[in-house]
Amino acid sequence: MLRTNWGHKTSYFQQNRWGSFDCKLCNMAFATQGKYFSHIKSEFHLNRLPKEQQVIQADTKPVVFVSIMEHHSNILPWREAGAEIVVIPEDQTGKVDLQFLENELSKYRDYPYKVGSFSAGSNVTGIVSDVREITRLLHSYNALAFFDYAAVAPYVKINMNPSKEESIDALFLSVHKFVGGPGTPGVLAVKKSLLSNEVPTTPGGGTVYYVTEKEHTYLLNPEEREEGGTPDVVGSIRAGLVFQLKEAVGEDYIHERERSISQKVKERLLKNPNIQLLGSTEAERIPIFSFMVRCGGKFYHYSFICALLNDLFGIESRGGCVCAGPYTFSLLGIPYELSVELGNALNEGYDLFRVGFVRVNFNYFMSEETIDYILDAIDFVAENAIWFLPQYKFDMERSAFMHRAYSTKEGRHKARKWISEVTYATGEMSFPSYDSENLDNLGSYIQEAHKLAQNIKENRYAHFYMSDNTLEIPAQLEHLRWFILPSEALTFVKGRNIQLSTSESPFCPKNYSHMPLEPKLPEPLPTPKRKDKKKNPLFPKVPKKIIKRVMNAVNDFDMIKEGDRILVCISGGKDSLTMLHALKQVQRVSPKHFEIGAATVDPQVPEYDPSPLKAYLEKLAIPYFYEQYPIVELASAKMTKKVSLCAFCSRMKRGILYSCARREGYNVLALGQHLDDLAESFVMSAFHNGLLRTMKTHYVNDQNDLRIIRPLAYVRERLMKEFAEEAELPVIVENCPACFAAPTERHRTKLLLASQEQLIPDLFSSLLRTMKPVMSGNFEEVNTKRPRNEEEECQECVFNPV
């Protein structure tokens, strides 16, 4: 039980407009606060106090009713205060569900402390709440009515006392959102009857009347008592001017102008099938619009759309959940379970998965030309974003998409304006001028953007390469990916038949009364025709960038000798098929004569079926050996506990290939590991074993009767992926029989290197120079050689040095 002192000092205090200190209980006025304090200690005052003072149940929580559309600042303080929060959903029109609110108020009818704290309008959708109706309903159940006017205060009438039943108990707003408002303080307007606490919320300087070394007394004037510290005099004056400006423009004019703009913008955005407008389009609103841009079954990341609007058109917009997380999940149709999964991905450092949207505001002081320009820019971005996405990358540190030109320290340094460049050496403030070329009119920027898009369509990012962004995302998080990646956009732009419509987002935004249009997929560009040579589907020409690297590796490590018979190990993946065609091309131009055959090991598991390769190799007229062996079944019967299934499988397949080569008279075995594989093995060996090792590019087996080569040792994986897609090779998905595509240590290392390559573009060139000394010859000079049974681990999982 907590006994209140309100009746002693503050319950009967009021300060009138002339500044006197009045005691309502005794109906007396005093010139100073000191005289008032003397009065409340007198017998005259004490004898008039009620005999039973108010008693408060300390263990009774206040109940606070909030809507789903609240800003975080109208949710988190109540949570942190320990209040019981009741969330009121929206109805079919997108407004606060008044019937649901009344049901909840009835449920908590007997609670002594009830507060309704609602937004007067959403900062996400601009939908305006029925403040009067909500207030009347709250008061009918003896609940206080608080309203957050931050989003709509600049554009609507504010009336705290339209009638006795509809009088607002408190409202709060941010003046910096008004025209001319930046640099102003926030405003709290509250009924004096609610400010009966003796101790201010934040005690400190400016809140006290008198302080001794043992005692202190606070000011009675609540406005002074609750605003400690040095007052923001300049900001407060500016806030007054801001409200004066709003009154001078006229609230009726502002309301009509905002209504007209809202209707125009809404109609325009709804016409574009790629734009997913969030929130109800039927409810009354101010011109605040939030939307997402579709790309097939997924969306463009809001951060990229914001960046593109800024970089192409100089339009500032906001991306994210705009401090309204619960409302965002509701609008996007994200259930709680999915929100938890997304939150876990963020906690693991994958901030790219943070959901959100793009928000744009249109204000009454904008000209029609400016409004049309912004709408034209949004339309352009919604229809042409795919062509620009490869130029951007997601910066994990800044949690935002950035143009690649500004993704490095050097690029950002050139783009920024620095305070350190300001000087006062001449006795006045001076700084360098920045050249900026302005076009004649806003429409010219739209025309220039179309020219840029057309140029991209013609050139298709020739000689432009990037790492596969999908490699940066763990397989277990792929089902959460709601956005397309720059590498996917590049593949589409280059005409590699990517199906943007087949992959779906894990959520679908909430649908109100309007039916969304079917998203318009970007039209793929026609595949460029080669004028010089006719395409050969069986023997496609391997690009020079691959052949050159293969030839360099073959020559550097003396992989091919006169008269060699090379057995190419084919799994059906992009790497081994690329190696086969590359060696066939090398065979035609090499001065050394050698033969080529191919072999595949079928482990006889349902997850991996390489049998379609038989027909393909027959068409190529290459000697082909299809070795079937129940490796996994044999492992369950023969494998010892000391050996992992990965090691057993790897050793068995290698042994089968050795036997095939000996049986068919081949003296060289060609394996398809590429530069990415070697780099990953190098890093894993250093991390896990403390040894500088990687796969050898050319070595002799223990029996000294077979040589093993890796012709792709200098070739990046992405080059082979591009070639396989362009040549339409019959790629077979190969899963390790031990884990069947489960996340592996190698995959984690791949993610690590991919993230570092974003920061260090020449990473793999540096790693290649580092690895060269350990890619050939014996390891005795570098490290002590370990027993073979510890070396032959599966390359999919840990480390395979051979």
From TrEMBL:
Keyword Zinc-finger belongs to the record: yes
SUPFAM superfamilies according to UniProt: Adenine nucleotide alpha hydrolases-like, PLP-dependent transferases
InterPro entries tied to this protein: Aminotrans_V_dom, PyrdxlP-dep_Trfase, PyrdxlP-dep_Trfase_major, PyrdxlP-dep_Trfase_small, Rossmann-like_a/b/a_fold, TilS/TtcA_N, Znf_C2H2_type
Coiled coil: none
Keyword Metal-binding among UniProt keywords: yes
Residues covered by the C2H2-type domain: 21-50
GO molecular function: zinc ion binding
Region annotation Disordered: where it falls in the sequence: 511-536
Database matches in Pfam families: Aminotran_5 (PF00266), ATP_bind_3 (PF01171)
PROSITE patterns hit by this protein: ZINC_FINGER_C2H2_1, ZINC_FINGER_C2H2_2
Keyword annotations from UniProtKB, A to Z: Metal-binding, Zinc, Zinc-finger
Alphabetized PANTHER family for the sequence: AMINOTRAN_5 DOMAIN-CONTAINING PROTEIN, SULFURTRANSFERASE-RELATED
Protein name: C2H2-type domain-containing protein
